[in-house]
TrEMBL record:
<dbReference type="InterPro" id="IPR018376">
    <property type="entry name" value="Enoyl-CoA_hyd/isom_CS"/>
</dbReference>
<dbReference type="InterPro" id="IPR029045">
    <property type="entry name" value="ClpP/crotonase-like_dom_sf"/>
</dbReference>
<comment type="similarity">
    <text>Belongs to the enoyl-CoA hydratase/isomerase family.</text>
</comment>
<dbReference type="Pfam" id="PF00378">
    <property type="entry name" value="ECH_1"/>
</dbReference>
<protein>
    <recommendedName>
        <fullName>Ethylmalonyl-CoA decarboxylase</fullName>
        <ecNumber>4.1.1.94</ecNumber>
    </recommendedName>
</protein>
<dbReference type="GO" id="GO:0004492">
    <property type="term" value="F:methyl/ethyl malonyl-CoA decarboxylase activity"/>
</dbReference>
<keyword id="KW-0963">Cytoplasm</keyword>
<dbReference type="GO" id="GO:0006635">
    <property type="term" value="P:fatty acid beta-oxidation"/>
</dbReference>
<comment type="function">
    <text>Decarboxylates ethylmalonyl-CoA, a potentially toxic metabolite, to form butyryl-CoA, suggesting it might be involved in metabolite proofreading. Acts preferentially on (S)-ethylmalonyl-CoA but also has some activity on the (R)-isomer. Also has methylmalonyl-CoA decarboxylase activity at lower level.</text>
</comment>
<keyword id="KW-0456">Lyase</keyword>
<dbReference type="GO" id="GO:0005829">
    <property type="term" value="C:cytosol"/>
</dbReference>
<dbReference type="InterPro" id="IPR001753">
    <property type="entry name" value="Enoyl-CoA_hydra/iso"/>
</dbReference>
Length: 319
């Protein structure tokens, strides 16, 4: 082969390689950008993820367990029963890692957040709280948890907190990082922060105001009110009440009841369910013009896609 032909072939192969690499890099850059934009705090706010992870890791115990099911509904379990599912530092890191796994789940449609051993979550582990009660560490933990819970709420999955037993302090805040809340009869959500000389710091106050309005939020935080299912439904915090399966004979297990409740919203192909969540999220979080532009982009992803073409071909009627 002539030297000129040979070097043309090498150049061509190199160019293809570079193109492949740059497209790969662009995809990565987009992914990283998306990840960053889901967070509230980054290095420009003085937030150093690795530093706080190292600090939190020192307070271990418990775990956050993730079960991805073929149905497209995942179950996230807060698991630290000997401390009423309080969040240790390592569980905070676990949570952030599980959220990352859910961000990269193309088949996902729904998420149920529950506590282990018949209670939801009693907030931060008070042993860790005592050890990091200085201002600086408190701020770092607060930023870490705000990032993790904001990313949880922004997942392209329809999420529900299944409240059994008690959701206290940070546990109450966690329920507000889901799209919906279901309460077992007899369970309680309580923002106990005032009794601890605090206010919510995991984003729970901001989200609570969005959910129930500022008047009700002021009452719940100012009075550290115990919210039972009836009050929760009345003020719009709670979306459904489940029968306590131990107290009501013949009632299905709570997780099964929650899955049945959620399934009406997760029925259908994953790309469509994810698009539904994304348009609602942009409407909830963005100024109108930006939300409209985002809605157009998301619409563009489902228009003419397989589910849309299939529906058109089937000439379905909506009776
Ligand atoms: C406030 C803001 C902050 C944030 O947002 O970051 C927080 O969340 S601070 C934490 C707020 N939560 C609390 O203050 C809960 C305190 N605990 C209780 O009120 C009770 O323990 C209760 C109601 C959860 C359960 O009461 P019960 O009588 O049923 O059981 P025990 O009290 O015997 O609890 C069993 C066992 O769990 C330990 N426990 C419970 N919650 C925590 C917690 N948040 N951190 C660490 N440990 C907790 C409790 O001490 C018992 O352990 P034991 O070794 O048997 O004494």
């Amino acid at each position: 082969m002539e030297i000129a032909t040979c070097s043309r072939m090498v150049l061509c192969a190199l160019r293809q390689q570079v193109l492949r690499c740059s497209s790969h890099c662009r995809t990565w850059a987009r992914l990283l950008q998306r990840q960053r934009s889901s967070c509230v705090y980054s290095s420009i706010h003085g937030f150093n993820q690795d530093e706080i992870r190292e600090k939190l890791q020192a307070f271990h115990g418990g775990s956050i367990d993730l079960l991805k099911q073929d149905s497209g509904i995942a179950v996230l379990t807060i698991n630290n029963p000997s401390r009423m599912n309080a969040f240790s530092g390592s569980m905070m890191i676990d949570l952030e890692e599980r959220v990352s796994q859910l961000e990269n789940w193309p088949e996902g449609k729904g998420l149920i957040v529950q506590g282990a051993a018949e209670t939801f979550c009693s907030g931060s582990d008070l042993n860790a709280v005592r050890a990091i009660s200085n201002q600086q560490d408190g701020m770092k933990m607060c930023m870490f948890m705000q990032n993790a819970l904001t990313r949880l709420l922004r997942l392209p999955l329809i999420s529900v907190a299944l409240v059994e037993g008690r959701a206290l302090g940070g546990g109450a805040e966690l329920t507000t990082a889901c799209d919906f809340r279901l309460m077992e009869a007899g369970s309680v959500i309580q923002f106990v922060h005032k009794h601890m000389g605090l206010v919510p710091g995991w984003g729970g106050a901001a989200r609570l105001v969005h959910l129930v309005g500022s008047q009700n939020a002021l009452k719940l935080l100012g009075g550290a009110v115990k919210v039972d299912p009836e009050l929760g439904v009345n003020i719009g915090l709670v979306d459904g009440v489940l029968e306590g399966h131990q107290k009501t004979e013949g009632a299905a297990p709570l997780l099964q009841q929650a899955e049945n409740w959620l399934s009406r919203y997760t029925k259908g192909p994953a790309p469509v369910i994810q698009a539904v969540k994304k348009v609602v999220l942009s409407g909830r979080e963005l100024p109108l013009s930006e939300a409209l532009r985002t809605e157009k982009d998301i619409f563009g992803m489902v228009w003419g896609a397989p589910a849309n073409l299939e529906a058109l071909a089937s000439k379905s009627k909506h009776k």
